[in-house]
Amino acid sequence: MINEKENDLFNKILDGEIIEELDKSLEEEIEKYKIYVKAYFESYTIVNKCKQNIISKVIMNLEMEE
């Protein structure tokens, strides 16, 4: 026999409530990961710029020593 919780869940599925909740949850997760990816690439860009600056300074120092 189906208990009350299973019956409520079944009715929510049939009414589309569960699908709407899942859609909303997925949209929130997608937005969160978009922010993570954007932050990752921004930090990657900053790190690369810092590396280039450091390398340039080292090269300039080496040239000055010669």
Explained architecture:
This protein is an all-alpha fold. It is built from 2 helices and no strands. The chain starts with a helix and ends with a helix.
Provide the descriptors you would attach to this structure in a database record.
rod-shaped; mainly alpha; 66 residues; 0% strand; 2 helices
Task: Reconstruct the topology from this structure.
Elements: H1 4-15, H2 17-65
Structure summarized in a few sentences:
With 66 residues, the protein is mostly helical. It has helices spanning 4-15, 17-65. The relative contact order is 0.06.
Poorly predicted regions: none
Largest sheet: none
| Rg over CA atoms | 27 Å
Tally of individual helices: 2
Number of strands: 0
Overall SS class: mainly alpha
Proportion of residues in helical segments = over 70%
What is the arithmetic mean of pLDDT?
Answer: 86
Question: What's the end-to-end separation, in Å?
Answer: 89 Å
Overall body shape = rod-shaped
Oligomer, anyone?
A: single chain
Beta-strand residue percentage: under 5%
SSE order, as H and E?
A: HH
